[in-house]
Structures are given as structure tokens and as C-alpha cells.
Amino acid sequence: MANSDGVNLGFKLVGPGEQPDIEYHPNPAKYHTRTQLRLNADPNLPNKPLPSGFPARVEGPIVWEGKDWTDEKQWVYELSLAELKEIEDAVEYFKGLNIPLGHISPKTFPLPTFSQTLHSLSKELYSGRGFFVLRTLPVDNLSKLSTAISFAGISSHVGPLRGRQSGNGAVIAHIKDLRATHNLKEIGNAAYTTDAQVFHTDAGDLIALLALEVAAEGGTSRIASSWRVYNEIAETRPDLIGTLAEEWVLDSFGGNPPYSKRPLLFHEDGKIILQYSRRHFTGYLSQKRNPEIPAITEAQAEALDAIHYTAEKYSLALNFQKGDMQFINSLGLVHARDGFRDDEEHTRHLIRLWLRNEELAWKTPAALQHIWDKLYTLKPEEQNFPLEPEIRKKAGGVAK
Ligand SMILES: [Fe+2]
Fold this sequence. Notes:
This protein has one domain: Double-stranded beta-helix. A hairpin with a 7-residue loop joins strand 9 (248-251) and strand 10. It is built from nine helices and 19 strands.
């Protein structure tokens, strides 16, 4: 078979039980060929009804396209000198309490006036467009400890619950190319390389990212509205909505049990929720998809590409600068980042928190509840704040 460029793909659909020809990095020729072959085999696919309970379309401020945003002032909140002073004072106040970092909260990190703004911005995450950026934390003037306290402290006013990022109770994760300093065999996630990360969600409600340093070139952050993606797929290929709402086999990459099963897409309490990471179905680098576990289907392979390319079409590129803090709703948005190049002076390094604001939170689908129970139940004294990069160990079966 040749694609439209005349390239011989040697591509064919596989039978049930066989893993389709699909990799972590989406291939547009394979996507289009797979779609064509599936529609040839069953031209009736686009006429299938949506699964029960799923709407023809969803509306709301979180339904947007990249082109709707014309000026980053629409989502970038510049910290004033007075706000930076409140943050600095809160760091000193917290240090003065002499208690473990797991106790960082709106109470122990008081922001007298800025707190109200952060609460409004948290509402923007849960019931508005789903993202915002705070600019600029002066990271060059702060120690690693003060940086961590500032970031966790500010974030606690957005979402007081911090999620478990790793089996050892770490609530801070480092996103950095670790190939030169860490064991390559442990790297199964593009987050620890300079490689592009394809569209995906993280586990949990909210993601907060702080840029400690940006790359010499590339590394652009991209986000897209899962609700906008839903509307397009629901309209053009409702059968794929059915596929996304069915149970999938997620590789736990050496965990016990070796895989878990759950849907990727939910319609809960009037809200579309997408929770998935492509690598669980394709593998990545040292974490290959386990051939012993049930394969995904051709329909699932097509659905993965449909999400990726629809998200890409409607995505917004964020100009993520050093000292920026990016907050996104990981239930209603997908995100990706371009590949990048570091040099001696510019080594891309982000730190990340997973957050939840119980007061504003969306209803968690029952099939995700066990993941939320593992994510958001760390007691303050169980929380670790690694100040140096480490590769996350599986958080007790939490599939990111
Ligand atoms: Fe991510």
C-alpha cells in the first residue's frame, strides 16, 4: 500500500488479539490509512449512535480553539511587586514555623490579598477556560528550598490538595532531560528526554508547572480543549466516542497487576472528562508495551490518533518563560510539548505539582475513584519534596 505521498507503508489492519501498528509518536500516513481501511471495511461506522448518556455536543467557556486566543494577556497574570512581596513574606513566615513542607497550606503560607485572586483563578480552571499562567517568580534569586516553598505555597491557594507523584510520596516531580545523569533503563517517559511529548493528560484534577529554566531551542508547551476535541469527534465519528468510552487495557509497565482496565472518556455530571496517556498503549523507550497483556484494537488505535490530531488542530501554544507558573485543568484539557535542544546555559527544567480544589472540583467518575484515592490521600507528614531531579517510581499502580 502507498500513501498519498506514494510512500509504501506496508500497512495493514491486524486481527483481534494482535497489537496494531501504532507507536508513541503519531504517524499521519498510518492514521489516514487506518481510517480509510476501517471505513472501507465498514462504511457504516460514522452512522453509529453515540454511546448512551453522551451528548451530541458540549458547550461552555472550556470549549475553545487555539485561534480564539489572540493575546497572551488573556491568560497570563503578571505578578505585581506587592504580590511578590506577599509571596516572599509568606516564605519567611512558613520557614519560621519550622514544620515539614507537607504542611504548606493557605493557612501556613498566608497571602493576605493575593489569595482572593488565586481563588478566582482556580475557578477559571474548573469552570472557565481551564488554564492560566502566573508570571514571573524570580527563580534566579531564590534557593531551591525557597523556590519549592513559593511554588507549593502559591499553588495551595489554587488547589489545597497535593497529589502523589511517585511511590515514595513525592509531591514534586522534575521534568528534565535526565539521560546523561540517570539510568537509561529507567526512562520510559518522554518527560525525561528532549523528545516531543504527544497530547495526553496527567492523572488528577489540576497540573501546576514552574519553569526553572527553558531550553536553548524548542520545548513549546501546547494545550487543547478536550471538550472541543469531543465535539468534533462526536459529530464526525461517533463510533470513536463509543471506543473511547469502552474499557481499555492500560499497561502498568512491570507493575502488579500487569495491566488495569478502564474507559478513557467519561461524561459525568454534564462534563466531558478525558484521562489518558498514549504511552500506556504504545509503550515508550525502555517501557515497551507488554506483549503478554491483551492488545489494543484497531478502533482504539484510530481513536488515539483521532484525539491527537484533533487536539493538535485546535491547540494553543504557550510561550512558557523562565519563572512562569502554568496551571491547567487536566480533566478538560490535553497537553503536549515540542522536542527541544538544551545547551550549556539553557537546560530545560520544570517542576510540577498535581493539585485539587475540593470545593470547586468536578465529580470524579467511579472508574477513576481508585486512582484519585491513591493520588490525593497523602498526609502532610508523608509528603516528600525532592529538590533534585529523580525519576518517578510507580505510585502504587497509579497510571499516569
Ligand atoms: Fe504531562
